[in-house]
Amino acid sequence: MTTYRSGRMSAKRSQLKKSKPVTIQPRRGRNSLSRGEILDASFFILKSEGLDALSMRRIAVQLGCSVASPYAHFQNREEIIRELIALGERQLTADLKGAQATSTDVFVQLHNIARTYWQFATENRELHKIMFNMDIGKMYRKVFPHLPTSYRVFLETIRGGIRSGAIRGKNRRGLARTMWAWMYGLIVLDMGSMVSDRGAQAAAVEEGIEIFKHALKN
């Protein structure tokens, strides 16, 4: 192991033609942090290491501050998770509304909404888990005591299709729940590596969309 004595490198280390000085970054003060930075660091840890790795200590290491510093903005880890859930829901809802706005044809809308939801879940696996996983479902309900806004996009789209006469049937809630459950189930299968081939995953999404389109038209 390379050792350091009195600020000098060992003989073995000094044989290198070039050596870069070690710069010790000063620890950041509590007042230098913002809520946004803490959430960004939390999301990075969640996405790269998973929920189990997310802790106030790990956040402090990521930001180069004391363990006490994040507490200036958040009471605890649970509050950070709730905020991440809220951020994820806002982003997912915005994405789905964007997909809804791509066409006035309800079947094109539902097609794009389903594909967009799939893309969000596959690109944000760990975030999607904390948003909809039953293990922390009670925490989610603290954030959203009513229907998730992302689910409402499915509901509104199907309601519009029923009003226009494009979709047969009157039970918009049942249709929306069924489509939502199908997408969620497909995502769970993917996360459990039950549909391991990437091409097969994409095909499963397209296949399901076509089945729904046929059923809703008839």
What does it look like?
- This protein is an all-alpha fold and 218 residues long.
- The protein folds into two domains: 27-74, Homeodomain-like (Arc Repressor Mutant, subunit A), CATH 1.10.10.60; 79-217, Tetracycline Repressor, domain 2 (Orthogonal Bundle).
- Helix content is 64%, strand content 2%.
- The protein has helices at residues 11-14, 35-49, 56-63, 77-100, 106-123, 125-132, 137-143, 149-164, 172-191, 198-217; strands at 4-5, 8-9.
- It has a two-stranded antiparallel sheet with strand order 1-2.
- A hairpin with a 2-residue loop joins strand 1 and strand 2.
- Helix 2 (35-49) crosses helix 3 (56-63), helix 4 packs across helix 7 and helix 4 (77-100) packs parallel to helix 8.
- The radius of gyration is 24 Å and the shape is elongated.
SSE blueprint and pairings:
Layout lengths: L3 E2 L2 E2 L1 H4 L20 H15 L6 H8 L13 H24 L5 H18 L1 H8 L4 H7 L5 H16 L7 H20 L6 H20 L1
Antiparallel strand pairs: 1-2
Helix pairs in contact: 2-3, 4-5, 4-6, 4-7, 4-8, 5-8, 5-10, 8-9, 9-10
Query: What percentage of the residues does DSSP assign to strands (E)?
Result: under 5%
* Form type: elongated
Q: What is the CATH third-level topology name of the largest domain?
A: Tetracycline Repressor, domain 2
- Please tell me the overall pLDDT: 80
Helix/strand-derived category reads mainly alpha
List how many beta strands DSSP finds. 2
Low-confidence stretches: 1-26
Succession of helices and strands: EEHHHHHHHHHH
